[in-house]
Task: inverse folding
């Protein structure tokens, strides 16, 4: 079995700095990609592609929240009226991105979730996928969600 080298925080910060055309010292693990580093939605796509290429991983094509909502048989479980539910916050806190309770809380406006994403969350996602047998982010998120749904007794649209 091929053992992949560990992904370091410094490597992730360096790659993000390169994509955003910043000096490496400007990027910290606690930096918000949008609020602190000025990334836009196209930059986030570039970051995902660049991190995947650098580490030989396939990063997810959709966020954990989007995939979870697509899997649900009913609406309003993870978000309600544009805000995270308690279960939605738990979903993200346990996700491969490893959001903390300080990062994500119930009743948080869904529109601000992207600005809450830190460099640390990208590092956690890359490290999680790197340790996953498939090294495929879509598969890793799908498996996380199946476990989460089973743990919380949720019905899904998934076959």
Result:
């Amino acid at each position: 079995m091929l053992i992949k080298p560990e992904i370091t925080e410094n490597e992730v910060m360096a790659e993000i700095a390169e994509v955003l055309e910043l000096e490496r010292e400007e990027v910290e693990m606690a930096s918000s990609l949008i609020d602190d580093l000025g990334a836009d939605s196209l930059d986030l796509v570039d970051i995902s592609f660049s991190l995947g290429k650098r580490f030989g991983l396939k990063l997810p094509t959709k966020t954990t929240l989007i995939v979870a909502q697509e899997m649900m048989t009913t609406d309003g479980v993870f978000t309600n009226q544009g805000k995270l539910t308690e279960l939605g916050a738990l979903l993200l806190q346990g996700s491969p991105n490893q959001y903390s309770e300080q990062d994500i809380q119930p009743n948080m406006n869904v529109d601000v979730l992207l600005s809450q994403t830190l460099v640390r969350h990208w590092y956690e996602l890359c490290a999680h996928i790197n340790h996953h047998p498939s090294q495929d982010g879509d598969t890793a998120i799908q498996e996380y969600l199946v476990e989460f749904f089973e743990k919380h007794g949720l019905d899904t649209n998934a076959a």
Q: What stands out?
A: The longest strand covers residues 79-80. The beta strands are 79-80, 83-84. The two ends are 31 Å apart (CA to CA).
